[in-house]
Design brief:
By secondary structure, the chain is α+β, with helices and mostly antiparallel strands. The protein has three domains: 84 residues, Roll (Ubiquitin-like (UB roll)), CATH 3.10.20; 80 residues, no CATH class; 91 residues, no CATH class. The chain contains nine helices and 13 strands. The strands form three sheets. Strands 8-9-11-10-12-13 form a six-stranded antiparallel sheet, covered by helices on one side. Strands 4, 5, 6 and 7 form a four-stranded antiparallel sheet that branches. Helix 2 packs across helix 4. The chain is globular. 27% of the residues are buried.
Length: 286
């Protein structure tokens, strides 16, 4: 799925995170509207509201799935005027995910997504609660002590997480998966843009995979001018901020921005800063 990166460019230029507009709809009303649109899109499915921002969908074969709308609601709060487009886009993505059930994994669509370990553990717990083997829920790979690479299939409307069995059926060897996924991401991403600032900088790509740029070794081994070692912040999937390990003002500014974004943003990843040394990003403590 593709979203605009303009809101983070605005943050970079203004040096402050814009305050989200007050939502016109409550969580309850937003959930009701989302459920109504989803029911119309999948008439053969039963859509129930479990609680605000939590839907249960019963498929025609009797199996259940869950939809959590927390990120959708946060996105709505940030731009209430785009409510209809937001709901229609997310419902369309969900419908596509239903249609893709049973469709073989296409290796050329596999991409790497940076997540924190908490996200992975939550996903495993959800799979276990639904009666599935939590170890089969996603294909993942450790990146460092706090971050994990989660592999997914990216299609025009949706991002689908797949299992080890899906990967085996697609004929992809595990020892070649990371290189394949990074190559695929390079192909689908638009031009990576650098935005230089007085104490920190920002990289932007497509508004979804900025955090995954940590995996592009040639980017970090290139000619990046900072004071000391490269330090980055990835508070959300679409924000990648950069400064130097010896730039005290830059470090302080990154921590301030990260705290604000993780408290208010969607698709949060980590409030930790990471330093690039010996070809990998690790936790930066100072």
């Amino acid at each position: 799925m593709r979203v605009s990166k303009s809101r983070w460019l605005s943050l970079f230029v203004a040096l402050v995170l814009p305050i989200a507009a007050l939502a016109a709809l409550s969580k309850e009303a937003f959930t009701q509207e989302f459920a109504t649109v989803l029911r119309a899109a999948v008439p053969g499915h039963k859509v129930e509201i479990v609680e605000p921002l939590h839907l249960r969908i019963t498929h025609p074969d009797g199996t259940d799935s869950t939809a959590y709308l927390d990120n959708a609601y946060k996105e709505y709060e940030a731009d209430p005027d785009a409510r209809q487009e937001l709901i229609e886009r997310r419902v369309a993505a969900w419908v596509e995910s239903i249609a893709s059930d049973g469709v073989p994994l296409d290796p050329k669509n596999i991409v790497p997504i940076i997540k924190d370990r908490g996200w992975v553990e939550d996903a495993k717990a959800m799979s276990k609660s639904r009666g599935f083997d939590p170890e089969e829920s996603q294909v993942t790979e450790d990146y460092n002590d706090e971050l994990v690479i989660v592999y997914a299939e990216d299609t025009p409307r949706n991002v689908r997480y797949f299992t080890r069995k899906d990967l085996d059926k697609a004929g992809v060897e595990r020892n070649k998966l990371r290189a394949l996924a990074i190559a695929n991401l390079r192909r689908v991403l638009p031009k990576i843009e650098a935005h230089q600032g007085p104490v920190y900088s920002m990289y932007t790509a497509d508004g979804n995979y900025e955090a995954s740029l940590l995996l592009f070794d040639d980017l970090w081994d290139g000619d990046i001018k900072v004071d000391g070692d490269i330090v980055v912040a990835i508070p959300t999937r679409d924000v990648l901020l950069i400064t130097g390990s010896k730039n005290e003002e830059g470090i302080a500014r990154l921590r301030e921005i990260v705290d604000q974004i993780t408290a208010e943003g969607t698709y949060t990843i980590s409030s930790t800063l990471f330093v690039y040394r010996k070809g990998v990003f690790r936790r930066f403590d100072k």
